[in-house]
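User: I'm putting together a small comparison set for a docking exercise, and I want a reference complex before I start. The sequence is below, and the ligand is magnesium ion. Could you produce the 3D structure with the ligand included, as structure tokens?
Assistant: Of course. I'll restate your input first, then give the structure tokens for the complex.
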Amino acid sequence: MPAVRVGLLGGTFDPPHLGHLLAATEVREALGLDAVRLVVANDPWQKSAERRVTPAGTRLRLCAAATAADPLLVVDDVEVRLGGVTWTARTLDHLHREHPEVEFVVVLGADAASRVPTWRDGGACLRRVPVAVVDRPGAGETDLPGLLGHATRVPVTQVDVSSTEVRRRAAEGRSIAYLVPDAVRSIVERERLYRRRS
Ligand code: ATP
Ligand code: MG
């Protein structure tokens, strides 16, 4: 067994919410990981084609606020440092080179797992790493794509929260309390993120 095993939960985190944090924590506990890193996508090309994604620097700050009180959840800015469109194969290569002593476990929600075949490399980079898949409300009973045949399914508490729902509520001027950590809510409110321009 490698000395250090770390989970990687990649995402847009626009904004981070309790579903992310609880899933990350429960996977860490279930697999005995040393930590889980939230890997903030620089330019999630599949999303930025469809909507205006909040600047990466702001999403990094939101993730830092969300995890500040928890030393076992860490924000990873590697994709932002690398720049350009998000490309998991490149991220994994970079992290393996930066931290040769660490075994990284890729963590995917079931919706993300079913979309792996749409990645630029068809998800081939995941064949070489351990993968954990967590169920998510609304994702349905998904069969994992064949290339995730080696993935471990980890049962986690089902939290029906999405960043889309948080953005929708904020846009409508509704409360996002209890869906995101208070520190995230403070930034969203103070900076009027996700509010409709009038
Ligand atoms: P959006 O609605 O903008 O797509 P999201 O809530 O899906 O946002 P992402 O940043 O796209 O959040 O998700 C990052 C990762 O976290 C993905 O693997 C996703 O499946 C997982 N995830 C997000 N929300 C949950 C949840 N409530 N429970 C379990 N996994 C989740
Ligand atoms: Mg999503």
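DSSP finds eight helices and six strands in the chain. The mean pLDDT is 95.
User: Thanks, that's exactly what I needed.
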